[in-house]
Design a protein that fits this description.
By secondary structure, this protein is an all-alpha fold. The protein has four helices and no strands. The longest helix has 42 residues, at 20-61.
């Protein structure tokens, strides 16, 4: 099967006075925000998978491995705390955004829309808030990595010794 290719040129709307450098800045910031949102969503999926696995591990450990069970519960709670910063864990409908604090994902989506809404360079305020929110996402992802490398890795070692299925990201 062959694909047809076409050469084309993208030209700026002649009605706009925005310099190319400003459009590039807008594109670059949108790309960073989108990548941050993608990393956040991947982390939330991983967290939810690990929380389910920790629940199963807790059940499998039971009374015989009470210490392992306690550690699994604590790790699941730590994962939930990270998830609750990344997303609104209590949201069940679109209207719940009015009832619960927004997650960092909401901030990123709003910023993506704010940066994209005009044919101008992002404002200093949009740039500053974008950097702040992305830094918070990065910090939460670092907390998640530390938890995986520390407590969850230790739980996996204990689970393997006890012949219980491990937790994977």
């Amino acid at each position: 099967e062959t694909m047809a290719t076409a050469d084309f040129t993208i030209v700026k709307d002649p009605r706009l006075t925005t310099p190319l450098k400003a459009h590039r800045h807008q594109f670059d910031l949108q790309l960073e925000l989108t990548q941050s949102l993608s990393a956040l969503n991947a982390a939330v999926n991983r967290i939810r998978r690990m929380r389910r696995q920790l629940g199963a591990l807790d059940e499998a450990a039971g009374e015989a491995q009470a210490d392992l069970s306690t550690k699994a519960k604590a790790a699941a709670a730590a994962l939930l705390a990270i998830e609750a910063v990344l997303v609104d864990v209590n949201r069940e409908s679109a209207r719940d955004i009015l009832r619960n604090p927004a997650g960092l994902d909401d901030g990123l989506v709003d910023l993506i829309n704010t940066v994209a809404i005009s044919d101008r360079e992002p404002t200093e305020q949009a740039e500053a808030v974008s950097r702040e929110i992305m830094a918070k996402v990065t910090a939460e992802l670092a907390r998640l990595q530390a938890l995986e490398a520390g407590d969850i890795a230790a739980i996996n070692r204990r689970a393997a010794d006890a012949g219980i299925a491990h937790v994977g990201g």
